[in-house]
Structure formats: structure tokens, C-alpha cells
Design a protein that fits this description.
Radius of gyration of chain A: 25 Å
Number of strands of chain A: 14
CATH superfamily of the largest domain in chain A: HUPs
CATH topology of the largest domain in chain A: Rossmann fold
Shape of chain A: globular
CATH class of the largest domain in chain A: Alpha Beta
Largest sheet of chain A: 5 strands, parallel
Distance between the termini of chain A: 82 Å
Oligomer: homotetramer
Number of domains of chain A: 3
Number of helices of chain A: 14
Structural class of chain A: alpha/beta
Largest interface: A-B, 88 and 88 residues
Strand order of the largest sheet of chain A: 3-2-1-4-5
Chain lengths: ~400, ~400, ~400, ~400
């Protein structure tokens, strides 16, 4: 086979599941190359302990396991939440924001291992292949990328299971659910199969991180979230690391059934696709962050920033986290967060959360003590007349012009 | 007095309440001019029947009453909802969108009556004065605007009541609530007094259009909302006029405690201000509209439109509904709505609503029958490789350039 | 060959030159299919008369010739100039705007002829392939597209000439110039070979539509251009059809050496590329159009429109003329042009043009007779104080807040 | 008079000319307060030497003179040119960018002097009053601002001269020109009187910094401008300080008649106004800067930045240089300039300048040596097919949907 000549060593993003196990084996067979497995803990809540054994048994020469939960939250999730980034009005970008970090860690291992190729388990119809590969190329423009789903002929469940059987890869015995999902510390997503009828409600048993609102406590719960420079640092007065804080918000949001979204979204590769998401902690985080911004952020700064968020969210959704335009926009966003210091009080109840109070000891643009100035020095109602007249001038001139035209 | 020479006849936006009654009398006294009262029904839910008598008793030469509920919903609320316009991420612009219509009707009466001045009861610290006056000047650039709150010396409740007593204006005996409010078919707003501590939760007794989520039914309710060219036309299969449809959504949303928002917002006149809003029907309308858009609207059209919505919302908030830039932007927005035909299924429960299904018989970009084309003619997974490689090219070149630099 | 089964009849965008002659023959040979040649006159200034004979001699079953100069100017160039669209600050999009029209006409012929495929002579490294094919798919999503440059192995000049010789295709004997070019009524572009060193000045002999500024008349020339709804309709008082008007401007601009641009631009496919352009008439047109806008267009309308032009220009550059986002944006642009009626006086001299006067008999927002209003009713200098104070309020509050913090 | 109680000491922006001399005297008379004169050298090319004597003779208690040319160029002009900021497509913002620096220096003197008020000579109809005062309030929200033109009754030339005579203020004897002007190191502007007919060409004798293109040398001149991080640092290989570099460019541009603009512009206070500008050095600077960007800046970064420039230019034009939204946007702009290192070769000839070459030894995204990679690893023409097909997918689906609808 020609393939074996191209690649000497490939680093595979490996989850231990059936699909990436088959890919691991397929890479060994097809490329006759060394395969290094790599698994990252981004808070997917699965056991990573036995992964090295599984990987080696399936043919990996070695296996790297990294706990990236703090880096993920601190350097990826939090910068994104400084912008209140939401894709198409609803999606908190939980999967989109994880891919760049996995790619980065994978490329660091590839560099250390001297690998000439990398591989992933994303299909050819989705966004994830773009997010992975655009990031790979950023770190090494000459890297060889192997995307088995675009290459092989194992295009059905049956073909995959036959391949697994043939190569003695264990097939999980637990009941196959009729959807696919992706989970990390920010969210879990669902798509496919049971969700393909856009009119049908998503099945209740699918939800993982949240109870049904109907099953949430009958009493609301109030929490306080504190922010420094736009990043959450404490809940109810307790300072927590980024990952621990997000985990705590997930637990609170999940308990109250908060953060479910059912969305028909537009993929970067051009088709519409239904996604259902649970983002319990992120949903609370956005509500609280906006509340602290509302009392500390200048109006024009907020409006400028907000006008750029659809584009920023699109960059992340499409996979351009490491691209210079995202970094340029982040510079603006981070500049806007210097004064975002304060806290928000949020009411959690039966599937939603709502700010009921906000404050800033250091940066409130509302609390400023106007008493130190005479009222009419700071705001003189008579000024409003001039303000209105000057602002209306162009409209008055246009009205005169229209009248003259008649 | 010099004032009496300036003005012969003034049309006053009159509500029948204490403040505009005092203004009416004050205008008569101060300007020695004829005062025409004008009241519009935009769905504020108050009795307008006795207004003409009250107005005349207080000194008005005549009184015009207009039912504008259908025009309000059809020509103001609905065009705005085609854009999913929300100010500062939370406010559905319920008061902002009403002011231009009141101004328009008032100026039509002024033209008919041959009045040379108009007046309103908005204070000198708020947004409404701008919204009224900018609109007035659009219709008549030479109109004389009288804003009593910016002119007179009745700057305390006591002074006002003394003036009322002196002029035999009846002072309402019902308990004065510690907030001010503005209501129409789209929403009710609250501000001032009890809400001035931004950390304190708004009092439950204030809410008018919605039950507390805790008191909402324990069972969720599902409804279907149908859209044509971006406008809602039917609920649960029943076609309704715009105003009746919005009233119906209000009743449904109110029953389930939907649409409460507590916001620290930025006024156009430069200060921050806390507003609490109930927009029960509008909240459902936005959720449903976005859902129908999600299945019928092109991705790039949506992203372009969404990037302009903060600016569009700002125009409306600031009072520029009749300005040419709003009209230019509306042309874009309306163009995007031609395909927004379909229906959404919404779940209402305990204070929030969430789309659970969406469909379009005529314009779905998801339902298209791909079967008429060979799968790989429409989407060939191998194409994704080229797509990614070309999109990554600039990033690869930059990476090579960085490497060469070292 | 498998290929012959796929395609029965292909419509080729045919210029009569060597490359598309070889493509014609190659299509016949390779696909064993009927080839219909199509040539459009967009003002490229070449003889189209003998094209049908040449096409048939080279193997075409038939040949369609269309004069599209008026449609090109009226429905493509003019709508684009309503926006003052310029790519990357310098390029007037002369080639970009021609491709969609060629594609449209080609697809109409394909429909009429019952062809199942279309083909073009654009290479795999440029923008034109995208512009052609994106437009093809818009008109027929199932059309088969054949891009020979991406398919064949004739990848050198030698291979091409060998192929031509073998198939008795006449090779032009005129000296081969060291650049490639594309010309139509709006411009001529140059790229490649002699231009590949970005530091070296483009050779003077390359320029086609313009004299060297040094060779232009020593006396300036003044012209007047008149506009209706944003479109030029007359020069020096003489009404002209769109194509004739643009031709006249080209003649004037060319005579004075106007409209040369030397640009390092970013292609849609990801690499930088140097392009040199001559757009004599278009350069004058933009200067004149902006001048008429400057006296007739509202400030906020202009600023809103201008902020969208980079995106609009990008859409056209990338090939999305027929895409719904371009059409939505055009709706906004066209709405802004309703008042753009008037004329501009332009000075042409030695390589550049500059507005020296502008006027509008019907829509000037400058000429309005302020005399009909008392000066201080329309503009009262005292109003400016209120205007400034209110606008500065947020900055004053922020300054107080900073001071309090210290 | 009440006035004398309000103000103890005022710092006046003083030019030594008739108007600010009258203001100086008027302040002393009207407010019975101490007046400190302040003059800044921003390159207006006038003698500042005798200003202290004149100021004191007219009544000033003291006079501060500052040479701000380097600070002006380095911290105001250059940051603005990093964005290629141009207002309404034509105006290089030469006056707008000077006002914030004058205000800053004036407020520093006010702080040092313990002054409670500041004053300036800008009228109530223009932009400058806003630029001054918004900046004043940024530095001291409690400062008293005195704008004599909005306050006094000296509203005619005759009244002014009478006042001058009465107070023994010398009236300049040189012929009064029929326009007003403002000059600094970046530009000179003209407005009023002779320019009020928008159709009439501006008089040749008005121009100050540039020769008429007709009088410029018959031979073109080529220059090289070098940039580091987006700022010009050298001309023809000679490193120069910012102010010296700009002065040198002015001299070169002026000699060749470069940088004249005749514009009908929209003032912030709502009316249209004609301005004529000479920006010889700035015009060359922008051409050169764009050229270096074109070879060093990523496409998406450029397009993002360009889409924000109209808003950025508007901020500066309106006077919001010190506002947080300008600073946030500057953070983005500066981030984009890190790679803008290189040089441009510019041809100067008879009224215009044009880039003819550009290069970057360190950051070219064009010069990258593709030879280190196999050609088809970096760019494979076959990839373009996938790129196009995926990009066209949404348009194909829409076309199928339209077809199905029929």
C-alpha cells in the first residue's frame, strides 16, 4: 500500500470508545505506522483510568492522558464568556470551544513525540473536523491530517461492528442510544437519529446534566456570583478555581433544570442541523456576567462589543479560535472587561435563572455618589432640550426639505 | 407673560392621570392658549371612557380618543419583532416602540386642529422625552414643543399636589405605589423608588401582567405559533388579528409567569437606570419567531441580520423609529423575512418558554428531500477536506512565516 | 472512459482564445459529449465576430453570442456603485462583478439547450472558479461543473501548446505578454509573471485603458455627472444609457490617466496575490457618486451604509452576488439611494480626479432655505451646551467613579 | 453680576489671534476672574514667541506655552493612522485629532494652576466645542466650561471689532481672508464664506500646504516609507522622529500638490458643512501604510478591522478620543499592527500618490518560501472543488427548495 510510506507516527485523539478504537486499529493496519493515543480530560465525566491499557491493547505504542479542566475553563471558556458569546442566539458553544484545546494539546504531543501526522474521529459532515484541522494546521502547517471518516469505507454501523469483531475490539454491550453526544465541563450536546424530526420534542431520557424543570425543587434558590475583570471567581462568597467554579454552577443549574436548549442551527459546512444542549452552569454564568456588566460597563463600550459578538461567536463555532482575527477581537473584549468587577444575585427556579440584584463595590457607574456634586451640575434637565434639538436637527432639515419638494 | 404670545393651540398627550391633568391646567394658565387633549389606546388596559369629560373639566377645548391597538401591533411591534430586537440583551423595547406611534397620531391631530404646539408628560431625565420630540420634529420641523417637566418649578410631589388642590384637580385616592410604570399591549415597565437599590429584588406585588412563576400551573402547556413573512398570524391553528394575537400570547404568557426581566440599562441621556419589565406575549413571540427563522433562513442572512440588531435596537430605544437609518435597516430586515413562513411549538412552564419543535411546509431548508439527488452529489464528505485545506491556507502560510522568522 | 457516461452536453464559457479553445477540444475528447460554446460581450473590446466559426471548427456543436453590455452596467455595475463598493480599500471589483452575469447567461443557455453540464476556463488557484461555480449552482443545484484546470494534466505552457498542435488548434502568433489580463466595460486587470515581485513597479507598456499620467493633457478637464436614485444618467448634460455612459467615462478617464491601482490583495482561496487594475470610468463614477451623496444623504444613513460596505464588497469579491445575504444588503443600499439625485463637478488631471462642486435641485440637505425659519428656531447655539453635557454625562460619571476609587 | 461668583481662575486655549484675545479680555471683564493663557504648538506654523507678552498685555495673569508636536504625532496621529481612519470616505481628521490633545494639556495646566474653569474659542455651531468639552469633562467632571461664543452677544464681526477697539486689543491689519482655517502638523482645513456655495470650486489662493497640481514638478518622485508595528519610522532609509517624519512627508506631498480634499461633510451637531482640506503628508502616509498592511496583514484581520473603521473615525470626528469605546477599539487596532513591519515605495506626481511596490523582510505573507514544502501540500488545486462545493451547499439547498416550491 502506498499509504504506509506517507506516515511514520500518528497521534490520535482517542476516547476509548468503539469509534476511536476502530480508528486506532485502522490506522495501524492501513498506514502501517506507529499510533500514539491521546486522551484529554475536559470534564466529560467518564473514566479515563483504563484508557492506556485499552489503547495499548488495541495497538497504540503509547498513550498520553492529560487533565485539562482548569486550562479549558480558564483560557477557553472564560475568555469566551467575557463576550457573552452565543451562536445564533441560543447555543453556548460548548463543543466548539473544546476542540481548539484538544488540538493544541494533541499537537504538543505530536511535537514531543516527533509524529508526522494526527488523526481524529470527527465525521466529514460536521463542524468538528474543521475545528480540529484548522487548529492542527495553525500549530504545524506541514502536519499530515488523517480523517478516517472521510477516507474509509466503513460507512455503516454494521461495517464498523464487523471490523471491530474481526480485529477483536470489544463492542460496548450497553444499549445504544439513538443520538450522539459530546460532553465536557461546559455542556453536553445531542444530535442525530431521535432528533431528526424537527417538529418532535426531544426525549426526556436523553437529558444528562439537568433534571426536568418539572422535577426541579419547588422552592427557588438564590445564589451570588462574583466577578473580577469579567471572570467569575466566587459563588456565595466562596472563591473557587475556574474549573471548580464551573462544576459548582453545573451542579446548581442541573439541580434546577437550567440550561436546556433545542436548536436548529447552521453548520459551517453548509447544512442545517438540530442540536440539543444542556449548559446548566454556563447559562447561569452568562446571566450573572451580563448583570455585573450592566452596572459597571460604559454604554458605548457595551453596544460596540455586543455588535461584534455574533461575529466572534461565529469565529469560535467555525473553528477559528487560534486565528488572528479572533485574537484581535479578544483584545477588544478583554479591554472592555477591566471594570467588570462586582457580583450578581441570581434566582434559580424550575428550568430558568434570572438576575434579581447586581452590585459593584469598586466600579459601579450607578452607585457613584452624586451628592458630592450639586444635582444640576451633573444633570440639568434643561440640557435635555438642547440634546434633543441638536439630535433632531438632521431630521428637521430633512422634513423641511421634503416639505419644500412638494 | 411672554409665553402666551408664542402658542395659540397645543395638543397634549393626555392620560387622565394626575400628572397630565396638572400639565393640562398648567398649559392653559401659563400659555393662555387652547389645549386639545389626546389619548390613545395602545392596550394600556385602562378605562378611556371618562377621559373626554375629565379633560374638558380640567380646561381642554376638546379631546380626541383613538384606538391604535391594531396599528401599534401591526406596524410597530411586528416589524420590530422581525428583527428579534432586544436592547442590551434583555429589554424587548415595549415603551420605546409605543412612543413613535403616539407622536404620529398626536401630530396628525395637531395638523388637523391647526395647532402650533404639542406637549407631553415625560420628564427631563428619561428616554421618553427624546422619543416623543424627535418624532414630533420629523412630522413638523417647526412645531413648538412644550415639555412642562423641563420648564416648570413643580419639582416635588408636594408642589404638584398643592397645584392640583389650588386648581381643583382631583387627586386619586388609591394608595400611591412606590414605582412608576408604563403599560401597553406589548409590556409593562416599572422604574424608580422601590427599585433604586440595584441589589434588592423587585417586590412581588409590583408585577401586573404575570403571575409569579411559583404560582403558575404545575403542568406545562404547549402551544403552536404560526408565521407568515416573519409575522405571527395564528395560535394553535386559530388566525387572529395582530392585536388579538398579541393579547392572546400575553394571556398565555401571563398565566405561566413568563417574560419578567430585571435590568440595569443605559439610558440615551447618559445615566444607568434600573427597569423591570413584564413582556409575556413578546417573550413567547421572540422564541417562536427565532425557531421558525432557524428552519427557513439562510445562514449568512441570519448572521448579517443578527450583527445589525444591536444597532437597530439602539435606534428604537433612542427614539429614531422614523429616522431614515431605521427605515434603511428595516428594508434589509424585511427582505430577510420573505421566507420566514412556518410554525413553532413552544412549551410554557413556570416562568419560561422554550421551543421544542419547528416546521415549515413551504420554506424549510432542512426538510428538502435530498433523496431526489444522489447523496454524494449534494454532499460529498471528501469535499470537506478541500474546504478545510483552503480555509486553513492563510493560517498555514502565517505559521510558515512565523517559523521562518525564528 | 468513465467520464463519457456522466455528461451529455456541456455549455462552455468560450473566449476564442487559445486556452478555451483547448478546453473545448478537451471536453469533446475527454467527455465524448456535445459542447455548446458561449461568448458574452461585456465590453472586453475584442472582436466576437469570428468566434462562432472558430468554435465550430474546434468542435462545438453550436455557439451563442450575447451582447450583455447594457445589462452588465445597469444591473451589476450600477447597483454595486450605489454602495461605493471597494475591496480592501482599493479594488473596484471589475472582474468580480462580471462573473455572475456570465454565469447567469451561461445557465440560461444551458437550460434552453438542455445541457447537463457547464465549464469554464478559470484555474484552480483563483477567485473566478468560485464566482462562476457558486453562481452556476444557484441557478441549477444539480448541474455538473467541469473545471478543466483542476482536472487535466496540461499544467504547463508546453503541454498546452503540444495539445493544441496535436489537435490543430491555431496558436496565436502575437508576442505572448508576461501577464494575464481580464477586461470588460468596467476595467482591465493584470496579474502574474511580470508582477510577481511585489517591490517592482508594474511595466508601463502593460497599461491598456489609460495613458500614463505623465502623458495626459497638461490642462485639466472639468466634467459634470448627473445622478438619479444613485445611478449616473448624464455627462455634461447629455443623457446616456448605462453602458454608453460608462464607456464615455472610460474614454475621459483614460485620456487623463485616471484609475490605475496596484494592489496586493487577499484571494478568497487564501493566498495573497498582486493585481494591477485600470478602472478609469469607475474611478470617476465613485468620486462623483460620493459627492452627490454628500449633499443628499442623511448622516446616520451614510455611516450605517459605509460600515457595511467592506462586507458587501467581500461578498461580491468572493462570488456571492446571487446569494440571499447580498440581496438583503442590496435592499438596504437601494433604500439609501432614493434621495441621491443631483450632480457633481469633477476635475480630471494627470492621473486623478477630484470633486470640486456638487448640487441637488431636489434633495439637497444643505441648500434648504433656512430663511423660512427664524435662525434660532432651527439652530440655537445654546442648545449645543445641553447636547454636549448630556453626551458627556456617561464620561463624567465614569470620571467621578475613577476619582472615588483612588 | 452673578457670573463673577462662579469662577475664580480660568485656563483659556489662547492663540494670540483677535478672537481669543477678545475672549481673554471678555473673561476678565465678565467673570472678574484670573485668566491663565495656554498655547500649544501642534505644528500650526505660527510664531508662538510673542504670545506670552500679548496674553499678559490683554489681561492674562500668566501664559503657558507647550511644544506638543512629538506627542501629537506619536500618540494621536499615528495611532489613528494605524486604522487608516477616514471620515465619510475622504477626511483625514486633522482637526478632530488635535482637539483632544489640546484639551488634555489644558486640563493638566488647570490642575496645576488650581483653576476651576476652562474656556475655548470654538463656536456653538461646530464640532470643536464638543471635542474640547467632552475631553475637558473626561479629565475633570466638575470643571466649569466657559464657551464665550455660546454666551456672549458679540455675534457679528462689527461687534467684535468694536469690543476690541474699546478694550485696546490690536486688530490685525493684514487682509481678512474670506474663510476660516485650522492648521497643525497633519493638515490645514478651510471652511465658511467663500466655500458656502457647494457648486463653486474653492479658490486656488486659499491653499497653503500644497502647490497646485498644475504647478507641481513635471517629473514624478519616488519615495520609500518604512513601518514598524504600523507606525512610519523612516523615509528613504532615514529614521526620523514621528513629528519630523510627518513634517518631511508634508514637505514632499506639498511639493507635488498631494492631499487636497473638497468635502461636504456631516457635522456631529447635525448640519452639513463644506470643508476643504490639505493633508499632504497624511495622504502619503495612508497610501504607504495600506501597502505595507497589504503584504503583512491577514485577510480576516484586515476585513474585520476595516469594517470597524467608519465607527472609529466617527468616534474621533465627534470628539470621543478619550472615551472607553475608542480605547477598546484601539486595543483591537493595535493588536492588528504587530506584524505591520515593512516598507512601501510610493510615486508622487501632480496631485496624487500611488503605491508601486511593497515589501516586508520579516512579516511578508506573500514572500514565504513555498519551496520548503511540496507545492501540492500547501495548495492542491483539487481542494478548490471541495471548497466551492461546501461553500455553495446552502445555495444549492435553497435552489432545490425553491424548485420544490414551484
Amino acid at each position: 500500500m502506498a499509504k504506509q510510506e506517507d506516515v511514520k507516527k500518528v497521534v490520535l485523539a482517542y476516547s476509548g470508545g468503539l469509534d476511536t478504537s476502530i480508528i486506532l486499529k485502522w490506522l495501524v493496519e492501513e498506514y502501517q505506522c506507529e499510533v500514539v493515543a491521546f486522551s484529554a480530560d475536559l470534564g466529560q465525566g467518564e473514566e479515563l483510568d483504563h484508557i492506556p491499557e485499552k489503547a495499548k491493547k488495541t495497538g497504540a505504542s503509547s498513550c498520553h492522558i492529560l487533565d485539562l479542566k482548569e486550562e479549558f475553563t480558564r483560557d477557553f471558556v472564560f475568555p469566551m464568556f467575557r463576550a457573552n458569546a452565543i451562536y445564533e442566539g441560543r447555543y453556548f458553544l460548548g463543543t466548539s470551544i473544546a476542540r481548539p484545546l484538544i488540538s493544541k494539546a494533541q499537537m504538543e504531543i505530536a511535537a514531543k513525540e516527533g509524529a508526522d501526522a494526527v488523526s481524529h474521529g470527527a465525521t466529514g459532515k460536521g463542524n468538528d473536523q474543521v475545528r480540529f484541522e484548522v487548529s492542527y494546521y495553525h500549530f504545524n502547517p506541514a502536519v499530515k491530517v488523517i480523517a478516517p471518516w472521510r477516507e474509509w469505507d466503513l460507512n455503516s454501523r454494521t461495517a464498523l461492528e464487523a471490523y471491530a469483531k474481526k480485529h477483536a475490539i470489544p463492542i460496548p454491550t450497553n444499549k445504544k442510544v439513538p443520538w450522539s453526544s459530546d460532553r465536557n465541563l461546559l455542556h453536553i450536546s445531542f444530535e442525530g437519529y431521535a432528533l431528526e424530526d424537527p417538529w418532535a420534542e426531544a426525549p426526556e431520557e436523553m437529558y444528562t446534566l439537568t433534571v426536568a424543570p418539572e422535577d426541579a425543587p419547588d422552592q427557588p434558590e438564590y445564589i451570588e456570583v462574583e466577578f473580577e475583570k469579567g471572570d467569575a471567581v466566587a459563588i456565595n462568597g466562596e472563591r473557587l478555581s475556574p474549573a471548580n467554579l464551573l462544576a459548582k454552577l453545573n451542579q446548581l443549574g442541573g439541580k434546577h433544570g437550567i440550561g436546556r436548549v433545542d436548536l436548529m442551527e447552521n453548520r459551517y459546512v453548509g447544512m442545517k442541523s438540530r442540536g440539543v444542549y444542556e449548559t446548566p452552569g454556563g447559562t447561569i454564568l452568562e446571566e450573572a456576567h451580563r448583570a455585573v456588566e450592566s452596572i459597571t460597563m460604559d454604554r458605548e463600550v457595551m453596544h460596540l462589543r455586543d455588535s461584534l459578538v455574533p461575529r466572534y461567536a461565529e469565529m469560535i463555532y467555525n473553528g477559528y479560535w487560534f486565528a488572528p482575527e479572533r485574537i484581535a477581537l479578544q483584545a477588544l473584549i478583554d479591554e472592555t472587561q477591566k471594570t467588570v468587577n462586582g457580583k450578581a444575585r441570581i434566582k434559580l427556579y424550575k428550568g430558568h435563572c434570572r438576575v434579581v440584584g447586581r452590585d459593584s463595590a469598586t466600579d459601579s457607574l450607578f452607585n457613584v455618589d452624586f451628592a458630592t456634586f450639586e444635582a444640576d451640575e451633573v444633570y440639568n434637565q434643561a440640557d435635555a432640550e438642547g440634546f434633543i434639538k441638536i439630535n433632531a436637527l438632521r431630521l428637521r432639515i430633512a422634513a423641511m426639505q421634503r416639505a419644500a419638494k412638494k
